[in-house]
Design goal:
The chain is built from ten helices and three strands; from the N terminus they run βααβαααβααααα. It is mainly α and 309 residues long. Strands 2-1-3 form a three-stranded mixed β-sheet. Helix 1 runs antiparallel to helix 2, helix 1 runs parallel beside helix 9 and helix 3 runs antiparallel to helix 5.
Length: 309
């Protein structure tokens, strides 16, 4: 396993090998990527340029949107460009970089969503101590944990996959480089390797998902003692977060909590959590949030006023 492989590039089969579908793929995913990028950047700019940044919830939301913008940029531009070419080639070094980016931002998002659930737990279950518990310093430390956790996770993944022997073939039945498709090309027994993937990527998804469930069970129990109006407001805020959690965690658990095998549905699932979910997150958090909508209106009004001067 320590021997260096002689593969310098991989051929991606893409979403489909049907040449008639390539133009449709280009158009659809170009629109998805632009909506995702504009939506997430708008959320970041709106929060950082308004008093909302002083609230821990919106502080974390700004980072979530930043991570989503980066996460969708890891594989989507490559898919869009590849749809214009018959041969979809990715160099070995580019493949490793793509894997690192996927797991850096994916791991960071998983931890951040757990941090956001903890923030909601403190806000609802310990409202009198919220400002002291979720101080600026604590929020900064939690963001540090998010990035360190994502970096550690991505580093483990890249050290694991980089030294595996690839002797050929070098055709990846996917639109991007990822662990399971690459393990199918390794010229050694992959049973133990597959368990490692499940233990690393799968475990981090499952553990954080269980922590999220525990926090929301505690929140629901605490809400029984609140007024109807307070319950409605809390559930409205938490509802957006729960929707994002389900959209992101369920596909990730499906992909990484099983032995390495290529299933026909894998590409569609990967599209969902790498492209669709980052596009939907800004819509989910803004359309149901009056403060965010007001802040966006004020930002647009300021821009119009400054343009008229």
């Amino acid at each position: 396993m320590g021997n260096r492989n002689n593969v310098t590039e991989f051929f991606l089969l893409g979403l489909t090998e049907n040449p008639k579908m390539q133009t449709i793929i280009f158009a659809v995913f170009f629109v998805i990527y632009i909506i995702s990028l504009v939506g997430n950047v708008l959320v970041v700019v709106t929060i950082t340029s308004s008093p909302l940044l002083g609230s821990p919830m919106y502080f974390f939301l700004a980072y979530l949107s930043f991570i989503d913008a980066c996460y969708s940029s890891v594989s989507t531009p490559k898919l869009i460009v590849d749809s214009l070419h018959e041969q979809k080639i990715i160099l070995f070094s580019e493949c490793m970089t793509q894997i690192f980016g996927e797991h850096l931002f994916g791991g960071a998002e998983i931890i951040l969503l757990t941090v956001m659930a903890y923030d909601r737990y403190v806000a609802i279950c310990k409202p009198l101590h919220y400002t002291s518990i979720m101080s600026r310093r604590v929020c900064g430390c939690l963001i540090g944990v998010v990035w360190v956790g994502g970096l550690l996770h991505a580093t483990i993944q890249i050290l694991f996959i980089f030294w595996l022997p690839f002797c050929g073939p070098n055709v990846i039945d996917h639109f991007m480089c990822d662990l399971n498709p690459l393990l199918n090309l390794v010229c050694t027994d992959t049973h133990t390797l597959g368990l490692f993937v499940a233990a690393n990527s799968g475990f981090i998804c499952l553990l954080n998902f269980l922590l999220l469930l525990v926090s929301y069970v505690a929140i629901l129990r605490a809400l029984r003692n609140h007024s109807l109006e307070a319950r409605h407001k809390a559930l409205s805020t938490c509802g957006s977060h729960i929707t994002v959690v389900i959209l992101f965690f369920v596909p990730c658990i499906f992909v990484y909590m099983r032995p390495p095998a290529t299933l026909s549905i894998d590409k569609a699932v990967a599209v969902f959590y790498t492209m669709i979910t980052p596009m939907l997150n800004p819509l989910i958090y803004t359309l149901r949030n009056a403060q965010m909508k007001n802040a966006i209106r004020k930002l647009c009004h300021r821009k119009i006023m400054s343009a008229d001067k």
